[in-house]
């Protein structure tokens, strides 16, 4: 499903990712485990095409996407939940969730939205509220819902459990576990493998910009 080959990223003279290669098969949940600053977020942003000047190849279903813009990746079934949520504060919850559909001109957006709401009914309950009226945990749910709107094949989750109460972390884990039934490939970045141990089938460790398979 996702193959990353020899990925290098520099910020100025500092190398943040060092010749990273990673294979994520179809219908697999995997963890990208590493401490803060190890390169997890940089890796996910590079896969999504959000970093300029990266070197290496990103392939999805054997198609090289290294030169493809982010919106094209979303149109192919990529979903991305950033660590800091990146919601538009003044937009309603539903407008935030629908942003990928608008940018990719998704044909079945309404049907997909109904499915997302069925999976995360909490988001449906506050769909008409503005994002800046929500708690941090509620915003995490909205960011996950937005990723799921377009992410029907591959989902990249960056620190989904960070900074949320234990009850909400458990709820997020339940939702992510349900995605196994949908046959999606999911890569979860986390600083603590205990958060994802019961969810993942494969673990990648990232340290100082290099990745190894556990």
TrEMBL record:
Boundaries of every ABC transporter domain copy: 2-213
Cross-referenced PROSITE patterns: ABC_TRANSPORTER_1, ABC_TRANSPORTER_2
Family membership: Belongs to the ABC transporter superfamily.
Name of the featured protein: ATP-binding cassette domain-containing protein
Alphabetical keyword list: Amino-acid transport, ATP-binding, Nucleotide-binding, Transport
GO biological process: L-amino acid transport
A GO molecular function held by the record: ATP binding
């Amino acid at each position: 499903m996702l193959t990353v080959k020899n990925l290098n990223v520099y910020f100025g003279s500092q190398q943040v990712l060092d010749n990273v290669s990673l294979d994520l098969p179809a219908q697999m949940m995997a963890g990208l485990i590493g401490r803060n600053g190890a390169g997890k977020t940089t890796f996910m942003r590079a896969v999504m095409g959000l970093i300029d000047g990266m070197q290496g190849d990103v392939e999805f279903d054997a198609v090289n996407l290294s030169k493809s813009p982010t919106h094209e990746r979303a149109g192919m079934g990529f979903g991305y939940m950033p660590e800091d949520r990146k919601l538009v504060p003044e937009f309603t919850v539903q407008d935030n969730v629908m942003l990928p559909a608008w940018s990719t001109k998704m044909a079945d957006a309404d049907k997909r939205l109904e499915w997302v709401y069925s999976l995360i009914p909490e988001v449906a309950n506050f769909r008409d509220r503005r994002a800046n009226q929500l708690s941090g945990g509620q915003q995490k749910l909205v960011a996950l819902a937005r990723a799921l709107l377009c992410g029907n094949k591959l989902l990249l989750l960056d620190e989904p459990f960070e900074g949320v109460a234990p009850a909400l972390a458990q709820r997020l884990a339940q939702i992510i576990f349900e995605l196994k039934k949908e046959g999606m490939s999911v890569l979860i970045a986390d600083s603590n493998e205990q958060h994802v141990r019961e969810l993942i089938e494969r673990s990648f460790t990232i340290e100082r910009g290099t990745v190894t398979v556990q």
